[in-house]
Design a protein that fits this description.
By secondary structure, this protein is α/β, with parallel strands linked by helices. It has helices spanning 12-28, 79-90, 131-157, 161-169, 177-190; strands at residues 59-64, 70-72, 75-76, 120-125, 195-197. It has a five-stranded mixed beta sheet with strand order 3-2-1-4-5, covered by helices on one side. Strand 2 (70-72) and strand 3 (75-76) form a beta hairpin. Helix 2 packs across helix 3 (131-157), helix 3 packs across helix 5 and helix 4 runs antiparallel to helix 5 (177-190).
Length: 202
Amino acid sequence: MARRSAPEVNAGSMADIAFLLLIFFLVTTTIDTDRGISRKLPPPLDETVEPPILKQKNIFVVELNKNNDLLVEEAPMELKDLRAAAVAFLDNGGGSGDDGCKYCKGERSSSSSDNPDKAVISLRNNRETSYSMYIAVQNELVAAYTELRNREAENLYGKSFTQMEADVKDVNYSGSKTKLKDQIKKIQLMYPEKLSEAEPKK
């Protein structure tokens, strides 16, 4: 009696299906991208130029210790109060003459910052500070600048600074982007983001 040969399985179509599935997953899968804090590094120091002298009252010291305790000007503070404290410092306008600030709406205390251009926020943290707390403090400090920029943009141009930045990136924006960029630059010069980060303490 003759042996019956086993039927062969055509694997060609299976390879095609596997290839199609591979293409499908490559096209439809979203790849997570790492997110971070946008920071522009300062240019290299020119050794022939002496660094400017900063008055202590123009420096707003924010410190995070290893226990994630927040200290502002050496006094304990809750995270929820940090933004308002930073706004009060940046918008103080305590200077006079050339150091004065006409658009500032702060208390104009002589013991706080002269004007937003001279005001520097110094952030110091410990190596054992948690990353989440560090980011939360960064967010509050950046939000303080955004709040002041939004206020001035509303006063001058009738819309928020945040909206102006979104319009610049919008491909369907119908207005003049050159004019809009000039307006954004003007607001940024009114409240320049001067956030200094010291090397973490051990």
